[in-house]
TrEMBL record:
NCBIfam families linked: PRK03634.1, rhamnu_1P_ald
Required cofactor names: Zn(2+)
Protein name: Rhamnulose-1-phosphate aldolase
Pathway: Carbohydrate degradation; L-rhamnose degradation; glycerone phosphate from L-rhamnose: step 3/3
Class II aldolase/adducin N-terminal domain: residues covered: 22-248
Function: Catalyzes the reversible cleavage of L-rhamnulose-1-phosphate to dihydroxyacetone phosphate (DHAP) and L-lactaldehyde.
Keywords noted in UniProt: Cytoplasm, Lyase, Metal-binding, Rhamnose metabolism, Zinc
Free-text comment on the cofactor: Binds 1 zinc ion per subunit.
Family affiliation: Belongs to the aldolase class II family. RhaD subfamily.
InterPro entries: Aldolase_class_II_sugar_metab, Aldolase_II/adducin_N, Aldolase_II/adducin_N_sf, Rhamnulose-1-P_Aldolase
Species the sequence originates in: Paenibacillus bovis
Amino acid sequence: MHTMMPEHQPIAIAPDQIPFVREMAQITRSMWRFGWDERNGGNVSCILEEQEVARYIDVNQVIRRFQPAFPVHELAGRYFIVTGSGKYFKNIIDDPEGNLGVLRVSYDGEHLELLWGLKNGAVPTSELPAHFMSHIERLKVDPQHRVVMHNHATHTLAMTFVHTLEENAFTRTLWEMCTECIVVFPDGIGVIPWMVPGSSEIGRATALKMKEHRAVLWPQHGIFGTGATIDEAFGLIETIEKAAQIYMKIAHLPIRQRITSQQLTDLAQAFGVTPRPGILDMQTDTQQTK
Ligand code: 2HA
Ligand code: ZN
């Protein structure tokens, strides 16, 4: 991780043309358009490789230092692009440098070093503890892991009012809503109790679930999705949100046919995924009530 100084000067390029900045600006714009990130809702952090950053940004020029909520030795020397605290996803595309930041966790893990962006005294997302703790846990189970994404996906949030929060039952219902679900998230969805956002406690509870799931639900608030790429984390949330949308459309109607346990088993087999144990043999919400 701790590598040499880059040999080349970073290439001169408009900030919104830096590939990892563009990708963040575009994905946050999509989330806002979906209505998942009202006002300053939502936050994203993405691990970057040093060479990738050094191509565009002087990694030896620390602009500012921040004190993280806790030392992050596990992430020492890692580079991140993150959304800023209080920033509106709507605005990122027009002012990436004001709304996003590129940071390095110092080599001793005690500080955050701002290398680019977060202009005018902006600071990283208020959910940084949850992001860092989730990155640490996901990296332990998947070395390819890079992205943590949080938003207020509308139907997913709505579903946490009317469906049991028992996570296996919640997962089973989602799997039943669209044929692709069990293939996209065979590891199911983790659910934590309602908690105050922005705290280290909610970060710890989220990260604990991240040991076994790539997606974690915050009841009456939103969702965390993770993945090896922005597309993957976004696609995971998108798929869960689609299933939740179907649920909210049909749960109150008489169900005439459904995806059966056998069909879910067949799907898993056909696509070579292993469904989280203990879910396929359970009854679900839509089955119980009709
Ligand atoms: O950044 O979504 O959970 C605002 C939030 C906090
Ligand atoms: Zn939120």
